[in-house]
Specification:
Number of helices of chain A: 4
Largest sheet of chain A: 5 strands, mixed
Shape of chain B: globular
CATH class of chain A: Alpha Beta
Helix content of chain A: 10-25%
Chains: A alpha/beta (163), B alpha/beta (185), C alpha+beta (392)
Radius of gyration of chain A: 19 Å
Structural class of chain B: alpha/beta
Strand order of the largest sheet of chain B: 1-2-3-4
Largest sheet of chain B: 4 strands, parallel
CATH superfamily of chain A: NADH:ubiquinone oxidoreductase Nqo5 subunit
Structural class of chain A: alpha/beta
Shape of chain A: globular
Distance between the termini of chain A: 59 Å
Order of helices and strands of chain A: HEEHEEEEHEH
Number of helices of chain B: 7
Strand content of chain B: 5-15%
Number of domains of chain A: 1
Oligomer: heterotrimer
Chain lengths: 163, 185, 392
């Protein structure tokens, strides 16, 4: 189905809050509590059939909070969807999608250690990429790269500007 | 250990022993990232560092005398590198291959990269490049062989004894080696 | 245990003080042993650590521990502009570096709605397919090496040297090309490139027969890989596995066919699939993909148009407009995708690199359950991954 048709079908189910089609791609936002219900529909519905798990990650939108993005694909119907939800910055928790797609396991572990988002029901949110002693959530916007803070990168200025 | 490292040998003997050592290096491949592929390419038929006497690949650090660290070292991997380096017997040499192991390279501002392998192990030769051509590794090996040719083993072992403590045996269950009681549970 | 006898304490000599207990018939108590393989190990393709729980010779559980090559690409990308990101992204799937760059340039071009000149698109296809051959040759060689066959490794590197020499003439790099620019390419192909390229295609096609003789027909190779490490298609899709592994499990999913980018819809090639999803099928699919790539390269030689390789008026600072996009390309190991969120600046707000190796490695616990320890390397070698891609 084209993104517009898919958006129309999904809006009719009432499980999603809003949609947006840009550059030929579809994004659907669900509420935080409707995250799993919407995902179940995307997986089981005959016209959607999203059986391929592409990735799950998050975007730090500073004041608006964290936007969790889960990209899914359907091998049979050959359409994509960016399934998103917005979490407040003060309370970043979400239910896990581990029961629906096996790939969500590692994706959620990675999102947890890099952003600090808790996934209820996952049960095993150990560190995946970072060493166990690492403190802080690196991909948040308030985590600064120390090497850049200490000394400015010399390549920022053009050679003519440097005296 | 022996005469060689306790006394300053006469020049001809020193020359001969250094000559034997520099042309029979057995390399331990600590290839981590992209530079490892260029390291392997340097060991295959076109560039071939075996003609310099460096044999690929030692089966383990206990049998190697040259360690080539090729690729980015992360903070998570650093203890493993230290452990491998400590397992190698003296005299041992380290070549840092590629800009990531020299100084952090293109990942100089990353939160998880060790900016330079020389923070963990002492390095003899740095080979710059990203990745360096296999010919650069050949030049690095030649430089190392020059260094070994002029080396004095006595100074080397004196330096080692001054900095590293004597190795302690590891006893299962703890305690000194004489009092071992294996109880069945 | 009732039929246990104690042989008491052995008198004098070594072992004095050791209690010896003899268990009765069939009552040997076994304990699960934990074996940690890696991160520095000659057999794993880089710094991957696998913690095995062994019950005798059978693997009860296998947990990959990754992160030893985590270099924080996502965070570094937020501090770099797009030219620097192209140069940095190379370093992830280091066996076929061009594929990584391609995804980023396609993502930025989609957001900016740029028209990439025709010649640039065809040359991109050419270099991308050569990269695919480079990558697959490496895995052909290393899979053989892990099972004990040393010759294919040297043959593979012989071929790789020839291809790297060819690509170095065009791009200047042996491994990290940085040939793409947003909007097109850095510079045009040198004179004589196409002739050398077609000569090399013929040479490699002839030499591929060596691998067939050495490995594919080899009884030892077949015995060690057929029916070992079977991965069903549904599980693979749920994990997000792509590329030769997914195709070997019977799912003919290839972005070049389903959503053609560049001009893949104007060249003819097939997507080889496997019937059983075992290690042998994965290897066979890899081998056949090389042949398909060589076919594509020959067609590109015929169809390459003349023209510019970058639009005439490219801004010095690339600033894509505000928005988000996800672009996926069929890289050698599977689907490499970039989720780019831009806020109009010259650095991205968020750039997520979705790598195929991450998902390929995440299904190792499923794949290795119940496998015998001697078959561990045959299975691990058939899971095609590059550690830089896994950890980013």
């Amino acid at each position: 189905m084209t993104p517009e048709e898919l958006a129309k079908h999904l809006n009719e189910t009432g499980l999603f809050e809003r949609d947006e089609v840009a550059h030929g791609e579809l994004s659907m936002w669900a509420s935080r509590d409707g995250w799993v219900a919407g995902a179940e529909h995307l997986k089981e519905c005959g016209r959607c059939r999203f059986d391929f798990f592409t990735f799950i990650s998050a975007v730090d939108l500073e004041d608006e909070g964290f936007e969790v993005v889960c990209h899914l694909y359907s091998v049979r119907r050959q359409h994509h969807i960016n399934y998103k939800t917005l979490l407040p910055r003060t309370e970043p928790r979400l239910r896990t999608l581990k029961g629906l797609w096996l790939g969500a396991d590692w994706g959620e572990r990675e999102t947890h250690e890099l952003f600090g988002i808790d996934f209820d029901g996952h049960g095993d949110l150990r560190k995946l990429l970072l060493p166990d002693e690492f403190e802080g959530f690196p991909l948040r916007k308030d985590f600064l790269l120390m090497s850049r803070e200490i000394k400015e990168w010399p390549g920022l200025k053009e050679p003519e500007e440097v005296k | 250990m022996g005469l060689v490292d306790r006394f300053d040998l006469p020049q001809p003997a020193k020359f001969l022993l250094n000559w034997g050592r520099k042309y029979s290096l057995w390399v331990m491949n600590f290839g981590l990232a992209c530079c490892a592929i260029e390291l392997i390419a340097a060991s295959t038929s076109r560039h071939d560092f075996i003609r310099l006497g460096v044999i690929p690949v030692a089966h383990g650090p206990r049998q190697a005398d040259l360690l080539v660290v090729a690729g980015t070292l992360t903070d998570k991997m650093a203890p493993a590198l230290k452990r491998v380096y400590e397992q190698m017997p003296e005299p041992k040499y380290v070549i840092s291959f590629g800009s990531c192991s020299n100084c952090g390279g293109p990942f100089w501002d990353s939160y998880s990269v060790t900016k330079g392998v020389d923070q963990i192990v002492p390095v003899d030769v740095y080979v710059p490049g990203c990745p360096p051509r296999p010919e650069a590794l050949l030049e690095g090996i030649l430089m190392l062989q020059d260094m070994i040719g002029k080396e004095s083993l006595k100074e080397r072992f004196e330096r080692r004894d001054a900095t590293e403590p004597k190795a302690q045996p590891i006893v299962v269950g703890g305690g000194p080696i004489f009092q071992t009681q294996i109880e069945d549970e | 245990m009732p039929s246990e006898r104690s042989a008491g304490v052995l008198p004098g000599g070594p072992g004095e003080g050791v209690q010896v207990v003899i268990a009765g018939e069939g009552e040997l108590a076994t304990q699960e042993m934990t074996l940690s393989i890696g991160p520095q190990h000659p057999s794993t393709h880089g710094v991957l650590r696998v913690v095995l729980g062994l019950d005798g010779e059978r693997i009860a559980s296998a947990i990959p521990v990754i992160g030893y090559m985590h270099r924080a690409f996502d965070k570094l990308a937020e501090a770099r502009d797009y030219r620097q990101i192209i140069a940095l992204s190379n370093r992830h799937d280091w066996l076929s570096a061009f594929g990584n760059e391609l995804g980023i340039t396609l993502a930025v071009e989609r957001l900016m709605e740029l028209e990439v000149p025709e010649r640039a698109q065809w040359i991109r296809m050419l270099v991308a397919e050569w990269n695919r051959v480079l990558n697959h040759l490496m895995f052909l060689g290393s899979f053989g090496l892990e099972l004990g066959a040393m010759t294919p490794m040297f043959y593979a590197f012989r071929e790789r040297e020839d291809i790297q020499h060819l690509l170095e003439a065009a791009t200047g790099g042996r491994m990290h090309f940085t040939y793409n620019r947003v909007g097109g390419l850095k510079e045009d192909l040198p004179r004589g490139f196409l002739k050398e390229s077609s000569d090399l295609v013929r040479k490699i096609r002839h030499r591929l027969l060596d691998y067939e003789g050495l490995l594919l027909g080899n009884e030892i190779f077949k015995k060690r890989t057929v029916s070992i490490g079977v991965l069903p298609g549904e599980i693979a899709k749920s994990y997000g596995v792509t590329g030769p592994i997914l195709q070997a499990s019977g799912v003919a999913e290839d972005s070049r066919k389903t959503e053609p980018y560049l001009h893949y819809d104007q060249v003819e090639f097939e997507v080889p699939t496997g019937a059983h999803g075992d290690s042998f099928d994965r290897f066979l699919v890899l081998y056949r993909r090389i042949e398909e790539s060589l076919k594509i390269i020959e067609q590109v030689h015929d169809k390459l148009p003349a023209g510019p390789i970058i639009p005439a008026k490219m801004p010095k600072n690339i600033k894509p407009p505000e928005g988000w996009t996800y672009v996926r390309t069929e890289n050698s190991l599977g689907e490499t995708g970039y989720y780019l969120v831009s806020r109009g600046g010259k650095e991205p707000w968020r750039l997520k690199m979705r790598t195929p190796s991450f998902h390929n490695v995440s299904m190792i616990p499923y794949l290795l359950e119940g496998v015998l320890l001697p078959d561990l390397i045959a299975v691990l070698g058939s899971v095609f991954f590059v550690v830089g891609d896994v950890d980013r």
